Amino acid sequence: MPNITDSKCVLVIGATSGIGRALALAIHDLPSKPTVIAAGRRQERLDELAKSSDRLKPLKFDVNGDRDALKRSVDDAIAKFPNLDAVLFVSGIQHIFDFKKPDEVDLDKLETELNTNYTSIVRMTRFFIPHFLKLGAEGRPSFLVTVTSGLAIIPGPWVPNYCATKAALHSFSLSLSLQLKDTNIKVMEVFPPLVESELHDHQGTTPKLAKFWLPLDEFTKQAMEGLKRGDVEIPVGSALGQWNKFEKGKLEASAQALALLSASAQ
């Protein structure tokens, strides 16, 4: 079964901190020795990563550019790294919104959260797929890896838009996996639970959440095990119980629905 160890060049979008940085380093350390492109907005952190290895390449990348700018960024990445055969979409932001106080709901923040966590990923997927289809025609596997959340399964009402963006990305990942099943492009989805990260720092909730979040090292270990197995869905920590209860079998049910639709069209 194709898995992340088959990759020769892996782009991690959102590699400047937290889950993205940890996964970039873990993939870099695979025995297969892939090149890892660490992409993000904070140049100083990218440079710091790049100093540690010749196989860690920094790439300034802003997912919140407009559609044309985002396409240029993807095209530039492919031109610079033509061996690119895997992309991990890890960048994400999270805001607390209380709709009981509608005047305090910042729509600019809400729309940026939607774009960062969902819309930009769908756009980038559209832009990367032609390159991956060309690799597939040469017999090479490629990988699109989305990072959603346990909150895509059971929402946290204090971050309603974040949960909705992750639920949308989860649904998109399932559909994309089935649409591409007859190609050499494999779609994989990682479901983190609450994980040690900087995601919550601006909310002022880090001290409270730090009492029960999953340590980053343990998350990375479990996520990498799934990526190395080639699992299509990789729920980690407490997200595994949620996935077992509410999501297990959904991909297969979607596949059956697609098969019925295809049969009826013949």
Automatic annotation (TrEMBL):
<dbReference type="InterPro" id="IPR020904">
    <property type="entry name" value="Sc_DH/Rdtase_CS"/>
</dbReference>
<dbReference type="InterPro" id="IPR036291">
    <property type="entry name" value="NAD(P)-bd_dom_sf"/>
</dbReference>
<keyword id="KW-0521">NADP</keyword>
<comment type="similarity">
    <text>Belongs to the short-chain dehydrogenases/reductases (SDR) family.</text>
</comment>
<dbReference type="Pfam" id="PF00106">
    <property type="entry name" value="adh_short"/>
</dbReference>
<dbReference type="GO" id="GO:0016491">
    <property type="term" value="F:oxidoreductase activity"/>
</dbReference>
<protein>
    <recommendedName>
        <fullName>NAD(P)-binding protein</fullName>
    </recommendedName>
</protein>
<keyword id="KW-0560">Oxidoreductase</keyword>
<dbReference type="InterPro" id="IPR002347">
    <property type="entry name" value="SDR_fam"/>
</dbReference>
